[in-house]
Design brief:
Elements: E1 8-12, H1 16-26, E2 31-37, E3 43-50, E4 53-59, E5 73-77, H2 81-92, E6 96-104, E7 107-114, E8 120-126
Parallel strand pairs: 1-4, 5-8
Antiparallel strand pairs: 2-3, 3-4, 6-7, 7-8
Length: 128
């Protein structure tokens, strides 16, 4: 397997560990692979995997004038109707539905949500 050369990097403000725990609980093979904490308990640097894809995250100690935006989202190709329904339900709890689950050309189901941490997810179930 080729080493991944580009990794999605998520910057949180005190919620990185909660977000990683939430995300890895939703995906069957999700796992936190490394985590380094700062003295105050926030995440200095961490890595986790979802569906074989590696991610990095931190907790920024600086308050920024920006956060996550739906213009960049994580696109997930689901394996079943049960999986897309569960992910849509859980990821939209406390967040918002940007596009409700429905049929699109080439897709049995598609939905777009922004989770409670501000990260956007496009969920797809391809037609078989």
């Amino acid at each position: 397997m080729t080493k991944q050369k580009i990794t999605t990097f998520l910057m949180f403000t005190g919620q990185a560990e909660n977000a990683m725990n939430f995300y890895t609980s939703l995906f069957e093979d999700g796992a936190i692979t490394n985590i380094l904490h700062q003295e105050d308990g926030t995440v200095l640097h961490a890595t986790f995997t979802l569906k074989g894809q590696a991610f990095m995250c931190i907790d920024s100690g600086i308050n920024h004038d920006f956060t996550f935006t739906p213009s960049i989202s994580l696109f997930v190709e689901c394996d079943s109707a049960d999986e897309i329904n569960l992910l849509f339900e859980k990821l939209s709890e406390g967040g918002s539905v940007l596009m409700p689950l429905g049929e699109l050309p080439g897709m049995e189901k598609f939905g777009w949500v922004q989770d409670s941490f501000g990260v956007s997810w496009q969920l797809s179930l391809p037609q078989k």
